[in-house]
Every structure is written in C-alpha cells, then in structure tokens.
Input
Amino acid sequence: MTSRLLQVAVDCQDPHRLAEFWAAVLDYRVIEDKGDQVEIASWEPTVEAVRREPMPSTVMFIKVPEGKVTKKNRLHLDVIPIDVSQDDEVERVIRLGARRVDLGQGEQSWVVLADPEGNEFCVLRSIAP
Output
C-alpha cells in the first residue's frame, strides 16, 4: 500500500486573493470555489488519475479567523523558474503581489519572498535553457 500527496492546505484570511496570486505564479487554475475554500491545480483530480500515478499537488486555500502568528513558516513552497531567469521570475512574482523577505538567510542561491499574506516561499535558480 502507498499514499499520494494530493493537496497542500494553506490557512489564510482571503482565499480568493491567495488563490489568484498562486494560480498566476504556478500557471494553475481554480478547480473548486466554495467561498471560504478555494482550490487551484494544474489538472482535474479524479480517483482514477490519483490511483494511476503521482501527480502535482493541488493547493487549497482555507479561510480562518486568525492571521499568521509566527515569524517564519514551518512549511514553505519552493518554486523554480522554467523559462526565464531567476531575477526575471522574482520581479514577475513581486509584480503579482509578493515581497522580498530577509529571514537571516544570508547570501544563497535562492530568493526568499512572501506572498500577499506573508507566507514565505523561495524562488530557486532557473532551469531555463
């Protein structure tokens, strides 16, 4: 027996705003909107597809009453530019609503950003040809 990672859930104040932001960053689309829960993905999950092979996770944004309460996330996402430079991707994502964050990481090959609600994520080195 085995399990599959199907979904990453993100608690947030504004699920529609974060879903819009992350869908633009990842080239995903909204696949389900229940008002207080908005799910994005690059594919439409079905039982057959999930059983067949591992697929990219969906991301579910769930409205909660409290805001972020810690300085640094215990879990964060890493994104990798596939067709532009790291610098170009960082600038694109900042235009979408992200901001640079200094967590004391020093000089690294990745860039730490925060989404519109302050959740940290990293933009890794590009794999563009």
Observations:
- The CA atoms of residues 21 and 96 lie 6 Å apart.
- The chain has a mean pLDDT of 93.
- Strands lie at 7-12, 29-33, 37-41, 58-63, 77-79, 99-100, 111-114, 120-123.
